[in-house]
Amino acid sequence: MAQIKLDQEQVKRVKNYAKDIADSVQKNVIDGNSSVSVERTVLRLYGVDGTDEEGTPYPNLIVDKLKEKDLLSKGVSKFFAASMLASKRDAMDTAELICQGNILFGEINEFSRADIESKEIELSKEALKTLDSSRIHKSKKQEKTPLPEQPFKYMIVATGNIYEDRTQAKAAVSSGADIIAVIRSTAQSLLDYVPYGATTEGFGGTFATQENFKIMRKALDEASKKKGTYVRLVNYASGLCMSEIAACAAIEDLDMLLNDSMYGILFRDINKKRTFVDQHFSRLICSRAKILINTGEDNYLTTSDAIENAYTVTSSQLINEAMGKNSLLTDEQLGLGHAFEIDPKVKNGFLFELAHAQLARQLFPDAPLKYMPPTKYKSCDIFFSQCMDSMFNLASVTTGQGIHLCGILTEAIHTPLMQDRFQSLSNVNYIFDTARDLGDEIEFKEDGVIAKRAQTVLNETEEFLKKVNDIGLMEAISEGYFAGIKRLDTGGKGLDGVFLKDSDYSNPILEMLEKEGTING
Amino acid sequence: MAQIKLDQEQVKRVKNYAKDIADSVQKNVIDGNSSVSVERTVLRLYGVDGTDEEGTPYPNLIVDKLKEKDLLSKGVSKFFAASMLASKRDAMDTAELICQGNILFGEINEFSRADIESKEIELSKEALKTLDSSRIHKSKKQEKTPLPEQPFKYMIVATGNIYEDRTQAKAAVSSGADIIAVIRSTAQSLLDYVPYGATTEGFGGTFATQENFKIMRKALDEASKKKGTYVRLVNYASGLCMSEIAACAAIEDLDMLLNDSMYGILFRDINKKRTFVDQHFSRLICSRAKILINTGEDNYLTTSDAIENAYTVTSSQLINEAMGKNSLLTDEQLGLGHAFEIDPKVKNGFLFELAHAQLARQLFPDAPLKYMPPTKYKSCDIFFSQCMDSMFNLASVTTGQGIHLCGILTEAIHTPLMQDRFQSLSNVNYIFDTARDLGDEIEFKEDGVIAKRAQTVLNETEEFLKKVNDIGLMEAISEGYFAGIKRLDTGGKGLDGVFLKDSDYSNPILEMLEKEGTING
Amino acid sequence: MGNLIKPYGDTIDDGIVQLSFTLPVTNGAKAKKAAEIYANNLKIEDVTIAHAEEIAEGFTYFVIFGKASVSIDYDSVKASEVSTEFYDYYEINSLIKEKINRKVNVVGASIGTDAHTVGIDAIMNMKGYDGDYGLERYPEINATNLGSQVTCEELVESALKNGSDAILVSQTVTQKDAHIRNFTELIELLEAEKIRKQFLVIAGGPRITNDLAIELGYDAGFGAGTVPSQVASYIVTCLVKE
Amino acid sequence: MGNLIKPYGDTIDDGIVQLSFTLPVTNGAKAKKAAEIYANNLKIEDVTIAHAEEIAEGFTYFVIFGKASVSIDYDSVKASEVSTEFYDYYEINSLIKEKINRKVNVVGASIGTDAHTVGIDAIMNMKGYDGDYGLERYPEINATNLGSQVTCEELVESALKNGSDAILVSQTVTQKDAHIRNFTELIELLEAEKIRKQFLVIAGGPRITNDLAIELGYDAGFGAGTVPSQVASYIVTCLVKE
Ligand code: B12
Ligand code: B12
Ligand SMILES: Cc1ncc(COP(=O)(O)O)c(C=O)c1O
Ligand SMILES: Cc1ncc(COP(=O)(O)O)c(C=O)c1O
Fold first, then answer.
1. CB pairs under 8 A, 24+ apart, for A6-14?
2. How remote is the CA of residue D111 from the centroid of ligand 1, in Å?
């Protein structure tokens, strides 16, 4: 592959800044706190699912009960373990009994600390087994139907109806898609619960529910067999239920999750603390269950200029990487994001796009970079849109990107129709094939426009991260360093769901995950 | 610009083969012969135009009269000069008088040889003035409205109706076209006369007539002013009336003509001798009037494979160049052709396209190469066609081509609609702009796929030209060396219009053009 | 008989149109025939099924050209456009100073669950759009941008509090007619509170036309490519008229 | 009531179609309205004028999405396809040997001023098309390819001289219905000479369908993507039947 000469010392410096930034958030924010959503995740991994008659999920009901009793700071784990000891039934039954008020919940003195702890350990080991088996199951499937060649062709479906989505997904796979992402219904990020069951109505997308995950994964297993390569399934672990969705996704053998360290804070006005706390746990789950994360750097470019603000993308990638590693994600799991969003009217814009894509490629050589297509400047003239996507496809294959979000010619008009997806994939398939080895056959001129542009972005990134590190990430966000959006420590949605861990707080799943470290195979 | 390393000795060798091939045709075929069409051209340049009541052009009627009298081998010039002396009227009136039988045509003994010769010289000088003024006129226009940046965007119009063509041409210019080509009505090549007047009906194109040229050139003069850069006009000097059309084109200030040394022979079954003879004169006219020629190498690839037969393109370019130089064309007038016609399904096809385009660029560094878009593999899925054209546009701007024939997304369906042209130009404008300097910013890897491919084509070309030179071009064509098509010396249309020049044959225009050589400014 | 027009391919009145759609059928001669008949039913004649491809099991995609057989009388087409003189930044500020003699108050938001702010920001933020300054930049305008995901109640409350002259509402998500529902909710709220007449209420977004906005009870609507000075011109012209 | 179908966007029966055309009008709100009404007249509802651009003075180009309001009964669609078993190269040669017992004679050409030979060559030349051998390769077939720009008279003469079983005619240029005129001329000539029944007469080309060929008096028609063995299968099947 063509390479740009980068100063490796400078690369080390920016990586160190990012690490310092991440470590400080880990120490000062994440380690001491938990959240309602983290606790609900524990319940889900202990085996709690389902809703009451009004549709409120049991995990929410149970955590709320504990919160009412002001006991949440100790963590839900021990209380639920005690209830199981009391009910002598499985987790689901126990949850139902708790919610029906048939078990006294919150009282644990009935049982010895040791008994409770050993029940917690038992439940947690089971939970980890669930995560392990997701990892192993996927790896086995990928032995039979291997992963295709990179860049992986990532295609969205978004009808709102999981059954129509399934039809669309299969169609997309038959046209060559390697990855199917089910776009979520508008603003699911803001829901403080995970909807339940198969859903047939959504706005701009389909709700992320465990049942929907299952339905789609099953369809893709069939599609994989037909295709001969493994088709991955993506959803979103963003918003107020990051870690819960990660748990559901792991249980249903999902392969990737959108999961960005600052997306919710900046673009959804979710509280900072809540986000960082939830996210750490969600990523630990992903690490263990071998779910790749996709980060959301593209979002920086939908609201601000792609050349002027290229450094925000690079900076965010570095922070996502550093935080990801603190949550035990491996390089191979880091689908760091970037996007082809330069105004098509800019002279030599394509050279700049190449520079940006190449810089990302070289900064994160082992990460399956997620490359987003043009969206902001996509034309309503769908014939012209095809041309922009062609150039995007070319940039992607030439710089060796990992996860290629296929651009859609009707991007500026509506969520894709079946034929839009077909046209998109015809474009991708052609360009990937006809220019497959272009990146190996050219070199970027030393000190040329491309190399210089990459260097400029790297310089701006270094300067920026230094400043962020000086005042700390929390403060930098408060002051509007990122995307020009100011988010205060005490602002945003979901802060009331965050709490300081009590000295006898317990969450053995989290502890085990952290202790056991990265597990492969 | 990125360069491929070529062995300059080898380049010299292939150029020498081509020169030998061209010289031999010049000596053995061209110099000793003339044709009805050459003679008609002389009449046109002497000022003869118009038709009789049945629509037969006066130049045809006059030349036919001479032929009937078996006097054509002496050339029409002296006879017509004598008639003018007899009529004491201008050329048009004289022509009418001849055709009406009011002047005895063919008898010249009435006048002294010297008088006739001096009339011939007078007429010829006028003729050359016409050619000179076309050159000067265009150059003045290009001072006011300069030529745009290369690659020049070449767009076709083809409604059959010159007035609709005018509307289409203006529309194309307003979308960015730099060059307008009026595609000819099907098989005009095979007409042994130039149709007369403004025409409103044609098949697959619009007849090439002097009046149509005038109408379109006027429209483009207006369009040039509006646009601020000079819009060039193209037509075809191919077929049985090569040199006549060149004359008409010069008179009407056309800028370019399709004019290929073997197109008519191979693809229209026009006799070899006829073609070479007509062509030399047509090119002398082009040289003097500063008309660029566009050659037709693309045609080799519509009937045979673009990879397998790439060397036929290069070989033809070299022969066109050598023959062109024998007809006094300068490098700047040689719009040597090639085409982007590799099957889009071929892996790394784009790398091969780059290699071919780059080879042409380097072999003819000063020629404004004419690059044809994908046509053969153009899809009926017009959305996919846009993608192929995007890659073509990219190859063109990256390798610095001269004359860029804009690909049309409906190529596989119909001659272009107004909106098809717009979509085509949106595509071109975008790619040329966004990747304007890509060629300057990359290098082709030494000994990489691209360089190797170019070398292979050059080797095959050398081998091929050596063989052609060994047996001579006439024989090589007879044996099917080109495009797999065999054309015998005595076969094809128009041979009956060729004749050996008598010892007292005169064509002072040709002589003067040859003697005075290339004239610039 | 007015001014009859038809689509134009390369000759006046040839009626040529390009069409693409997918039918839920397996590809083959019958599918192509069905596509042809379907196009005929859409009053398109001389149909060319240029391309037919089965893009999923049981779904075939077509690219079609044909000649539409109907004409419409262009003279009879009525379309409303925001009808006002358009002034520039300086003219607008002077007009306010001279003719209105107080600052103009404007409040804007993207309502409902719509999280798209780029459109309303383009109109309101300092920076503006396409080289045209945003309303916040106008010294004679007090512009308040509430951002996105704003409820109708919040927006109305803010408008009342600021004594707004104009309320600007943006909607980008149009799937399942989400924008129609949101736009309507706002007007209904204003009418319920009997304060509709108190404000100029202006709709905007990529799929908004003036016609649609007026139909929904708004004073004006602005679509794709709007620049802030157009909106300011409209507001000021209306206020001056009052 | 049969099997009613409609175009499919992302939900069964949503009727979504994409349309593009150019109207001979200046761009603006009125032009967009006209495009919308025009689409309505083509029975398309819920029209989105996604894009409108003046691509030449007085000509505006539109990209449109909308919902077609009509359905068609798929069960009632009748399309003829060349109806025959398809055999491969080896099977065809054996069939001829066993059932016909003599060589089959075929002559082909691209008629009129049509100079496109690639199509007829694909069917007749040795090399064939898409990995399928051409008729010249078949040991049991005598194939004569006259090339292009062949007059009907020349073609018929050659067919009579060769004692052809089948005449293959190719047409690529369809502008101004040139192919219809040429195809018709040939059939009229054959009928005038009262030898129409003597041959299988087969039409082909990128815009040819079996339906069209039959309408024009041919025995069969083959379109884009035809491979030689399909044509040979058809010829042999017909000859065996006789
Ligand atoms: C940027 C963007 C986003 C960003 C928004 C960031 C932000 N802060 O705004 C992010 C990534 C968050 C996003 C998210 C989503 N998006 Co979005 N997004 C876009 C995108 C790419 C560009 C929109 C844009 O910024 N345009 C630029 C501005 C300047 O143009 P404009 O809005 O038209 O504004 C102009 C005029 O309309 C007018 N105007 C606008 N408002 C107003 C108001 C007034 C009063 C006036 C006078 C004028 C006016 O003036 C402006 C300047 O000329 C479009 C696709 C596209 N290319 O259009 C999709 C798009 C709008 N998004 C879409 C969807 C579906 C979503 C999601 C629902 C997807 C999902 N399921 O997650 C989410 C959720 C959003 C939500 N809850 O609303 C769809 C909408 C489909 C539809 N027709 O309903 C689109 C079309 C993409 C697609 N094809 O699917 N999106
Ligand atoms: C190659 C080509 C040429 C070459 C032809 C070389 C040659 N020796 O054939 C050249 C450069 C000479 C040429 C010239 C012209 N061309 Co041309 N050409 C094309 C092109 C690019 C490809 C056609 C092709 O080879 N297809 C590949 C073959 C294999 O496919 P096919 O013909 O469909 O054949 C298959 C089937 O149809 C079937 N088939 C075909 N014939 C038969 C016969 C039988 C009996 C059977 C059973 C089956 C069968 O089997 C084949 C294999 O599957 C097309 C555009 C395109 N991409 O289609 C334009 C195109 C056909 N040309 C076109 C035009 C207008 C012309 C010109 C008139 C332009 C001009 N004004 O100069 C000239 C003049 C030609 C003339 N007098 O006829 C138009 C036709 C428009 C229309 N619909 O009427 C097209 C569509 C381009 C365009 N958009 O304008 N052309
Ligand atoms: C990282 C990330 N998470 C989540 C989302 C969208 O999810 P939601 O609409 O639920 O916020 C996006 C959208 O682009 C994203 O980039
Ligand atoms: C060099 C050249 N001359 C002429 C023509 C076409 O002219 P005609 O159809 O009159 O032969 C072409 C067509 O591609 C060409 O390449």
1. A6/A359, A6/A362, A6/A363, A6/A454, A6/A455, A6/A458, A10/A458, A10/A462, A11/A363, A11/A458, A13/A462, A14/A314, A14/A318, A14/A363, A14/A458, A14/A461, A14/A462, A14/A465
2. 55
The DSSP-derived string for B89-150 is: S-HHHHHHHHHTT-S--S--TTS-HHHHHHHHHHHHHHHHHHHHHHHHHHHHHHHHS---PS
ipTM at complex level: 0.95
Residue ranges around ligand 2 (CB below 6 Å): B 158, 183-184, 186-187, 204-205, 267, 299, 302-303, 375-376, 378, 411-415; D 108, 113-120, 122-123, 129, 168-170, 172-175, 202, 204-206, 222-226, 231
Confirm or reject contact between D29 and chain C (CB < 8 A).
yes
Answer whether D115 sits within 8 Å of B203, measured CB to CB.
Answer: no
| Boundary (domain end) residue, out of A452, A481, A503 | A452
Cβ count within 10 A of residue B364: 21
User: Given this model, what pLDDT does residue C79 score?
Assistant: 87
What span, in angstroms and rounded, lies between the C-alpha atoms of A414 and C173?
9
Alpha carbons within 13 A on the beta-carbon side of B489: 8
Please tell me which of the candidates D61, D113, D224 has its beta carbon nearest to residue B187: D113
Q: Is residue A218 domain-shared with residue A104, that is, in the same domain? A: no
| Span D173-219, pLDDT tens digits | 998 888 999 999 999 999 999 999 999 999 999 999 999 999 999 99
Ligand that lies nearest to the alpha carbon of residue B373, given by its number in the listed order: 2
Same domain, B243 and B390: yes
Q: Are residues A249 and A371 in the same domain?
A: yes
Identify the pLDDT of residue D37.
97
Q: For residue A270, give the CATH number of its domain.
A: 3.20.20.440
Question: A91 and A228, same structural domain?
Answer: no
Show the domain range for A86.
33-126
Token pair for C148 = 């996105």
Task: Indicate which ligand has the atom closest to the C-alpha of C110.
Answer: 1
Q: Which residues of B touch C18 (CB under 8 A)?
A: 382, 419
Contact C50 B413 (CB under 8 A): yes
Residue A106 shares a structural domain with residue A197: no
pLDDT at B202: 87
Stated pTM of the model: 0.96
**Which of helix, strand or coil describes residue A288?**
helix
Q: How many domains does chain B have?
A: 2
Tell me if C53 and B381 make a contact (CB, 8 A cut-off).
yes
C-alpha B307/C-alpha B457 separation (Å) is 9
Residue D1 confidence class, pLDDT cut points 50, 70, 90: low
| A500 inside domain | no
- CB-CB neighbors (< 8 A) of A416 in chain D: 10
Q: Hey, what domains does chain D have and what are their CATH numbers?
A: 4-74 (3.30.30.60), 89-241 (3.40.50.280)
- The answer to whether B370 is a known catalytic residue is yes
Rounded Cα distance, B363 and B401, in Å: 12
A384–B426 CB contact, under 8 Å: yes
Which tokens in the block code for residue D188?
A: 């009229």
State whether residue A171 sits within 8 Å of chain C by CB: yes
Q: Quick check: is B484 in a domain?
A: no
Q: Report the alpha-carbon distance of residue C123 to residue C132 in Å, rounded.
A: 9
Domain assignment present for residue B409? The answer is yes
The answer to whether residue B515 sits within a structural domain is no
Q: Please indicate, yes or no, whether residues A159 and A78 belong to a single structural domain of this protein.
A: no
- The residues with which A371 forms a beta bridge, in sequence order, are A338, A404
Which ligand number lies closest to the CA of residue B189? 4
The answer to whether residues B228 and B258 belong to one domain is yes
Ligand 1 test: best mutation among C107, C111, C118, most atoms within 8 Å of CB? C118
Interface test with chain C among B166, B203, B414, by most C beta carbons within 10 Å: B414
Q: At residue C27, does pLDDT exceed 80?
A: yes
Catalytic residue (choose from B49, B165, B253, B298): B298
